[in-house]
Amino acid sequence: MTSSTTSRHRQCTTASFLSVPDSVLEHDMLSFLSPADSSRAARAHRDCAAPARGRLARSEIRVPEDCSSLNAALAEVSFLICQASPYAIPAIIVGPGKHILKGGLMTICDSGVIIRGAGGAGCVPASASSQIVGRIRVEGGAKDVSLEALSVSNPFGAGVWVTGKDTCVELKHCKVSGCRGDGIYARQGSHCKLVSCDVEKNQSSGIAAWDAETAFNIFDTTVAKNQGDGVKVFPGALVDVTSSRVRRNSGHGLVTSDECSSINIFSSSVVDNARGQMQGQVTVRRERSATA
């Protein structure tokens, strides 16, 4: 190859690279990079700036279309939160089908994380098509964490574990079933709200609360057919049950461990539980729960 031919070849190669459309960079190149690498690419080359900015400014991250796994999608959201992204934090949208968590666990320790199943708002829990297999753990004081329209099961332990002072999570239109331990377990001063959920057929209690200042607010939720108690409350914890149904559990429907723990019931039914409907500090109230 002559020197002139080589020179023309280099020019063509350079021109070809510089003329790559933004859409190709975004979908065929930047999609393989982590958020950190996308940011570096944007700073390193002007042709990467627009597609990189588009990726970082997404309002949603879809699994598996945008990220191959739920764990990877959460890592991307955590990066944006830790880097104080100037854009709104994207919601993670989980597609239909079975999603097995890496190592059987997904840990959420950042505030503002939203994970929503394919059914979206108003999905009936029993029909939730986005199935999460493994434990979802929310900890470290994370606030405003939202899980919506998901089906959660864990063959090795509790389905949803909430721990740490001031950690706050809301489950809406979720189904938690088939867990080897408790369906939903909260401790160490964390707060958990359930709205229109099904917690059923778990191998221990459906819902368990432990430690002082730990609180559950359960609204329009069915807790049924669990092999332990329906709702079990340990020393210092407080649970409100409003417009809900606790039935056909193998233990008690509602039970507290001592006088330091309590359950308040508002307009709810507790029936057909094998060891009895209520035991301990359980109070039936006429007024509606202020936190429902």
Question: Can you walk through the features of this model?
Answer:
With 292 residues, the protein is of the alpha/beta class. Helices cover 20% and strands 35% of the residues. It has helices spanning 3-18, 22-29, 35-44, 46-56, 70-82; strands at residues 60-63, 91-94, 97-108, 114-117, 130-138, 145-148, 151-153, 160-163, 168-172, 175-177, 184-187, 191-195, 198-200, 207-209, 215-219, 222-224, 231-233, 238-242, 245-247, 254-256, 262-266, 269-271, 278-279, 282-285. The strands form two sheets. Strands 3, 5, 7, 8, 10, 11, 13, 14, 16, 17, 19, 20, 22 and 23 form a 14-stranded parallel β-sheet that branches. The protein has a ten-stranded parallel β-sheet with strand order 1-2-4-6-9-12-15-18-21-24, covered by helices on one side. α2 (22-29) packs across α4 (46-56) and α3 runs antiparallel to α4 (46-56). The longest helix is centred in the first third of the chain and has 16 residues, at 3-18. The chain is elongated. Residues 1-29 have low confidence and may be disordered.
